[in-house]
Amino acid sequence: MDRYMTIRSIILSTMLVSFNLLAGSAFAESSVWKVSKDNNYFYIGGTIHLLSEQDHPLPAEFDLAYNDAGKIFFETDLAATETPEFQSKFIAAMTYSDDRTLEGELEPAIYRKLENFMTSRQMPIAQFSKFQPWGVSLMIVILEYQRLGMMPNYGVDAYFNGRALSDHKRIMGLETADEQLNFLKSMAGMDPNAGIEYTLRDLKRLPESMAAMKESWRSGDLDALAESAFMLQMQEEFPQIYNTIVTNRNNAWMAQLVRLTEDSAKEFVLVGAMHLYGKEGILNQLALQGFTVEQL
Question: How many domains does the chain have?
Answer without folding.
Answer: 1
